[in-house]
């Protein structure tokens, strides 16, 4: 739900090739009354990524869970199963990590392949390993179903013969321009069709729209959840605790260019300011904390995210 | 079609003689020359002449048996679709041993193949990595469950129970129409069909040497026990616990879930009955948590676990997949097995069979083309006319589209749809189904059929085929679609054993095997799930509530009809007061004094009996009773269920208007049926915890009702009324409390408050008295398991204390003497007694369903 960053610069202040961050993501539930048992599925530990190195990662859970099991899911994300089995009224998870993010190579969007070629190249892509890993992001998923409306919208950017990266970036810019950032407009449960109709939403919605548009024209696209470093206005201290988790989209641009991460919320291609936690077909695959409990009287939820750059 | 060489005439000569003509397709009973096929001859000769009257009698018998056994199915989305009677044709489908052998070996190969594909796709995925299958075949399919990828299942068996729909082509070969690998239904109906037909046609059944079905289910039960993880019970020596997980009474084949659970000796559970702790699945029983080792699931994987699958599922168990992952519980079928229902993979099966098993596919599948494959799509678009277009994946549903029936515009629209999302479409060749004889309109008529055959994994890692199946026939001769949901029928399927000479070495069969018989042990008393205890408790309450409402309505109605009844006019007043205070008629109706004259009152009473939209009408109570009984149907005897159905029928709104006299007669009928229900409760239920909860429900409801009656007639202020009104009120109470006779025998004439209250409240020997209910509650609660699954330290302590206090207050000598004492007594009881219910609920029932957070 991160609002557009005030002035997302192309690189961070340190000017080097990478930035190290300390990330603290705290999630706290208040169930209103004691619940005897709760189960949780957490996507809170940042996944490995070619442009990102995890130097330290720690989950602190309160109350201490009876069961805690970590595994890697189908998409390569780290997922943690947690069960609290004694009566508890609150549940909190603090995910702390130190992550180093590298600046992506400079892009040459207009020199990428025409998008139709990328689309058609997928047909033969059944070969070892990568084929399936890439093509699985072509299809409808729980929260992103293709529709004529999405296809129409996508065609505004994916014009015949246009280089795929240029088209994806144009799509990103159009969503940024034509959709209003409005945290009151949607919830996690708002269907994508409603977002399309009302042209309002938050970063998760925009990421879904971008993913859906790319898939509508036949390109694999995934939903990425993570954090964004919010740059402080000049002369002011960085706001701590104001941040929340962020989401953007990643579009497959062919074997030569690979995945291109686009952030419609901020109209920028992901750079060193973006910390990736997990990716999947849509939010449903990677929601940071999903839980099921027995009983409870409604719940309050507090989330805070601090993304603090570390000086070397 | 080549003529069948066998031309020996049957005992009945040509098929024409019995007026049975088959068409251009293959007929199961007669050959191309209209002669009976050899394997039908014994059957037809034992059937005797096809006398319409005798056949009608047999049909009546079959219907009676089906009704008696409560064989039903439900149709989703149809308010009248609950509990449809099961349509069964009397004529079985006969298949000879040699033909069955070929089918059997083909099906066993197919089961092994599908299992091998599942093992690969949920494991190393070599098939998609190395080009044997396009990856999109799994990735486009919502039925591919990423959450369970990588989970090892015992012995690599994903598919424990499997069903195949077969159809016979005009050339006489059997073809596979579709595979059922998620949670196949129909085997219980096949068992029930057998039970009925073996009784209706005993001679034919005996002489035809029909293969028995029980062995197959014994094998399946053994398999279920054999896959139990051993770590849970190590050293404890306990037998593995296998449960059947059902989505619940509203599922279309719920009857079968109940039936199979009984037949296999498994506990029938719903998701809410299970809980996961320490990555282990437990059954919530009255005596605490009992570990579950194997889950035979009739629930689609999508709904199995709200944590990892659909979050909106209230049918599943949170943490279930993690328990499977940890190896502490085994699902049958494994989660994700539904993938093999995909039509997209069918065209690849011959190659996959060669690759994975090194064999040719023995049983052909109906030719199909998956549009997700470029070459196959091109073929489909060029040959639309001869094809049927279907969804590639079972989770997408649209009606089959017959290419030949499309207009030019529809055709190009379809091609456009296919091109946009090709992977969602398959095309199949249209197949002419074989026909079998159905008894209809007094004669045999050929009807198209589809045969569903069932397989189970064996403990040694192979597959066994049920020697029989569920044959479904279409309702009309020309129909291309065979479906129970669209009015078709079913048949028993007889696999004829090889001729006697061939089976000399096998074990002799019992001459009259009472088939089917239940196998395996009954679930123990510890297996009473809390949800079922809750259901039985409410069943008792609703039955008693209906009875209370009924007595009140009947007493009122009889006085309205017959104002000559002694005291009728005066007694109407307290009765109407009660009806109004219990919310059965509007308050202004209670003020009517002229008996019988008021039309509005009559209509209000009519509504209080039969209006299903009136929340406190008798009909509403009966609907609650029926619904609750339905939810615990597996715990009720067949007779109890029939009585519940009868109560439901008797309270259905009449077609036209009903006059007051016939309404009264109707109420009398319902009274007797309700009495039959309580009689069965007392006389045909084992005194286990289940019965106790039912009786607790009844006792609590009767206590609350008695208190409500006393307060409704303002018993404490009764001395303010004149003497005739006092007597009228007390007489009404005696009648509603079924105690008129007893009172008269003791007190003859005068009706006085203290002796009436003694009889209705304090008299522990009177089964209608409050003291009787309290004593019973005390007894029951002391006999309940001491450890509930709730959080309370002493589950029944609170409830017992309330009951004890209530009994004490009744025993005090002055309790019923003064108006003041009475007021205090009933105010206290009205406050405290409902808490008995709350305490029990807290201790034993888990009303709190899992929810997402």
Please name the two chains that share the biggest interface, counting residues whose Cβ lies under 8 Å from a Cβ on the partner chain: A-B, 43 and 41 residues
Helix content of chain B: 40-55%
> What's the overall average pLDDT of chain B, rounded?
85
Number of domains of chain A: 2
- What's the overall geometry of chain B? elongated
Q: Main β-sheet of chain B: number of strands, strand sense, barrel status?
A: 7 strands, antiparallel
Low-confidence stretches of chain A: 6-15
Number of strands of chain B: 23
Structural category of chain B: alpha+beta
| Structural domain tally of chain B | 4
Content-based structural category of chain A: alpha+beta
**Helical stretch count of chain B?**
26
Biggest β-sheet description of chain A = 5 strands, antiparallel
Helix content of chain A: 10-25%
Q: Give the strand content of chain B.
A: 5-15%
Query: Number of helical segments of chain A?
Result: 7
Task: Outline the structure in words.
Chain A: One of its GO terms (biological process) is proteolysis. Chain A: Residues 195-266 form the Transglutaminase-like domain. Chain A: Keywords: Hydrolase, Protease. Chain A: Pfam families: Bact_transglu_N (PF08379), Transglut_core (PF01841). The complex is a heterodimer of chains A (312) and B (853). In chain A, 20% of the residues lie in helices and 36% in strands. Chain A is α+β, with helices and mostly antiparallel strands. Chain A has two domains: 18-101 and 289-310, Immunoglobulin-like (Sandwich); 102-284, C8orf32 fold, CATH 3.10.620.30. A five-stranded antiparallel beta sheet of chain A has the order 12-11-10-9-13. A four-stranded antiparallel beta sheet of chain A has the order 3-6-1-15, with no helix packed on it. A four-stranded antiparallel beta sheet of chain A has the order 4-5-2-14, with no helix packed on it. Chain A is globular, with a radius of gyration of 20 Å. The model of chain A is unreliable at 6-15 (pLDDT under 50). In chain B, 42% of the residues lie in helices and 12% in strands. Chain B has four domains: 94-343 and 478-503, no CATH class; 368-429, Dna Ligase, domain 1 (2-Layer Sandwich); 528-685, no CATH class; 686-853, no CATH class. Chain B is of the alpha+beta class. In chain B, strands 4, 5, 17, 18, 19, 20 and 21 form a seven-stranded antiparallel beta sheet that branches. Chain B has a four-stranded parallel beta sheet with strand order 7-6-11-12, covered by helices on one side. Chain B has a four-stranded antiparallel beta sheet with strand order 13-16-14-15, with helices on one face. In chain B, 49% of the residues are buried. In chain B, a hairpin with a 2-residue loop joins strand 17 (435-440) and strand 18 (443-457). Chain B starts with 40 loop residues before the first helix and ends with a strand. The chains are: A alpha+beta (312), B alpha+beta (853). Strand 14 of chain A pairs antiparallel with strand 23 of chain B, so a sheet runs across the interface.
């Amino acid at each position: 739900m991160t609002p557009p960053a005030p002035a997302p610069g192309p690189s961070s202040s340190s000017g080097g090739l990478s930035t190290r961050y300390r990330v603290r993501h705290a999630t706290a539930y208040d169930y209103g009354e004691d619940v005897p048992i709760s189960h949780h599925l957490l996507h809170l530990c940042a996944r490995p990524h070619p442009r990102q190195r995890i130097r330290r990662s720690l989950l602190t859970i309160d109350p201490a869970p009876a069961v805690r099991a970590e595994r890697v899911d189908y998409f390569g994300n780290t997922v943690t199963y947690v069960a609290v089995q004694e009566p508890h009224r609150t549940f909190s998870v603090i995910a702390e990590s130190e992550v180093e993010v590298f600046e992506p190579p400079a892009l040459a969007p207009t020199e990428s392949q025409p998008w139709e070629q990328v689309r058609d190249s997928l047909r033969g892509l059944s070969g070892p390993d990568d084929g399936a890993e890439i093509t699985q992001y072509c299809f409808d998923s729980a929260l992103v179903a293709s529709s004529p409306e999405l296809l129409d919208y996508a065609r505004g950017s994916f014009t015949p013969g246009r280089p795929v990266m240029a088209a994806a970036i144009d799509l990103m810019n159009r969503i940024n321009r034509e959709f209003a950032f409005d945290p009151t407009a949607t919830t996690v449960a708002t269907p994508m069709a409603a977002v399309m109709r009302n042209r309002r939403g938050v970063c998760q919605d925009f990421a879904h729209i971008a993913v859906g548009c790319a898939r509508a024209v036949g390109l694999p696209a995934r939903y990425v959840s993570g954090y964004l470093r919010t740059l402080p206005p000049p002369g002011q201290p960085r706001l701590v605790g104001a941040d929340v988790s962020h989401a953007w989209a990643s579009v497959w641009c062919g074997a030569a260019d690979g995945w291109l991460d686009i952030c419609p919320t901020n109209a920028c291609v992901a750079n060193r300011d973006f910390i990736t936690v997990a990716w999947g077909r849509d939010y449903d695959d990677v929601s940071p904390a999903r839980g099921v409990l027995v009983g409870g009287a409604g719940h309050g939820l507090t989330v805070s995210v601090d993304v603090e750059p570390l000086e070397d | 079609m080549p003529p069948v060489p066998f031309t020996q005439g049957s005992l009945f000569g040509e098929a024409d003689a019995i007026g049975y003509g088959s068409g251009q397709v293959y007929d199961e009973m007669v050959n191309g020359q209209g002669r009976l096929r050899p394997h039908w001859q014994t059957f037809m000769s034992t059937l005797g002449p096809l006398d319409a009257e005798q056949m009608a009698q047999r049909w009546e018998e079959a219907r009676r048996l089906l009704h008696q056994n409560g064989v039903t199915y439900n149709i989703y989305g149809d308010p009248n679709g609950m509990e449809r009677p099961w349509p069964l044709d009397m004529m079985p489908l006969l298949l000879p041993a040699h033909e069955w052998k070929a089918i059997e070996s083909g099906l066993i190969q197919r089961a092994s193949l599908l299992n091998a594909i599942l093992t690969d796709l949920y494991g190393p995925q070599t098939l998609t990595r190395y080009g044997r299958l396009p990856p999109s075949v799994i990735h486009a399919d919502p039925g591919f469950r990423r959450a369970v990828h990588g989970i090892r299942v015992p012995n690599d068996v994903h598919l424990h129970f499997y069903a195949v729909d077969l159809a016979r082509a005009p050339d006489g070969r059997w073809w596979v129409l579709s595979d059922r690998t998620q949670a196949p239904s129909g085997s219980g109906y096949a068992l029930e069909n057998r039970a009925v037909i073996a009784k209706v046609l005993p001679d034919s059944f005996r002489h035809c040497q029909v293969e028995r079905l029980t062995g197959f289910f014994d094998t399946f039960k053994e398999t279920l026990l054999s896959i139990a993880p051993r770590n849970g019970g190590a050293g404890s020596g306990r037998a593995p616990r296998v449960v059947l997980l059902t989505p619940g009474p509203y599922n279309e084949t719920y009857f079968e879930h109940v039936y199979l659970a009984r037949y296999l000796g498994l506990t029938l559970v719903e998701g809410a009955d299970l809980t996961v702790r320490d990555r282990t699945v437990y059954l919530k029983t009255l005596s605490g948590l009992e570990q579950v080792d194997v889950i035979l699931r009739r629930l689609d994987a999508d709904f199995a676990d709200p944590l990892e699958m659909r979050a909106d599922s209230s049918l599943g168990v949170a943490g279930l997949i993690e328990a499977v992952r940890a190896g502490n519980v085994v699902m049958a079928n494994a989660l994700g097995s539904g993938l093999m229902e995909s039509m997209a993979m069918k065209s690849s099966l011959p190659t996959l069979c060669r690759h994975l098993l090194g064999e040719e596919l023995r049983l052909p599948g109906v030719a199909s083309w998956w549009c997700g494959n470029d070459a196959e799509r091109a073929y489909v678009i060029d040959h639309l006319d001869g094809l049927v277009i279907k969804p590639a994946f079972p989770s997408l549903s649209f009606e089959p589209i017959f290419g030949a029936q499309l207009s030019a515009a529809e055709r190009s629209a379809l091609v456009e749809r296919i091109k946009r999302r090709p992977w969602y479409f398959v095309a199949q060749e249209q197949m002419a189904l074989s026909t079998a004889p159905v008894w209809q309109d007094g004669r045999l008529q050929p009807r198209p059929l589809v045969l569903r055959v069932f397989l189970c994994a064996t403990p040694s890692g192979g597959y066994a085929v049920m020697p029989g199946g569920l044959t479904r026939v279409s309702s009309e001769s020309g129909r291309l679609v065979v479906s129970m949901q669209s009015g078709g029928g079913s048949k028993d399927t007889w696999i004829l054993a090889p001729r006697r000479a061939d089976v000399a070495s096998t074990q002799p069969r019992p001459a009259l095997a009472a088939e089917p018989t239940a196998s395996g042990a009954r679930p123990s008393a510890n297996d009473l799930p809390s949800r079922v205890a809750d259901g039985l408790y409410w069943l008792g309450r609703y039955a008693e509530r209906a009875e209370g409402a009924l007595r009140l309505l009947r007493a009122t109605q009889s006085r309205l009809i017959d104002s000559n009844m002694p005291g009728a006019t005066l007694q109407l007043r307290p009765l109407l007061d009660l009806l109004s205070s219990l919310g059965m008629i509007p308050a202004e109706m209670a003020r009517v004094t002229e008996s019988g004259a008021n039309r509005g009152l009559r209509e209000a009473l009519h509504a209080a009996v039969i209006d299903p939209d009136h929340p406190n009408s008798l009909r509403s109570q009966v609907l609650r009773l029926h619904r609750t009984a339905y939810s615990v149907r597996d715990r009720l005897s067949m007779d109890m269920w029939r009585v519940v159905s009868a109560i439901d029928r008797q309270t259905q709104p009449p077609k036209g208007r009903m006059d007051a006299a016939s309404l009264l007669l109707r109420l009398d009928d319902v009274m007797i049926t309700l009495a039959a229900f309580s009689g069965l409760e007392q006389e045909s239920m084992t005194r286990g915890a289940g019965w106790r909860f039912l009786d607790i429900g009844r006792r609590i409801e009767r206590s609350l009702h008695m208190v409500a009656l006393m307060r409704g007639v303002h018993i404490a202020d009764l001395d303010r009324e004149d003497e005739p009104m006092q007597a009228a009120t007390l007489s009404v109470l005696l009648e509603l409390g079924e105690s008129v006779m007893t009172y008269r025998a003791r007190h003859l004439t005068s009706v006085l408050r203290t002796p009436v209250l003694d009889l209705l409240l304090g008299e522990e020997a009177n089964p209608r008295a409050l003291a009787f209910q309290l004593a019973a509650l005390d007894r029951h609660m002391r006999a309940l398991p001491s450890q509930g699954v709730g959080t309370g330290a002493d589950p029944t302590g609170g409830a017992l204390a309330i009951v004890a206090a209530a009994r004490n207050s009744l025993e005090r000598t002055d309790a019923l003497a003064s108006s003041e004492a009475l007021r205090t007594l009933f105010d206290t009881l009205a406050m405290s007694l409902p808490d008995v219910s709350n305490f029990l609920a807290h201790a034993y029932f888990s009303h709190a369903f899992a929810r997402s957070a």
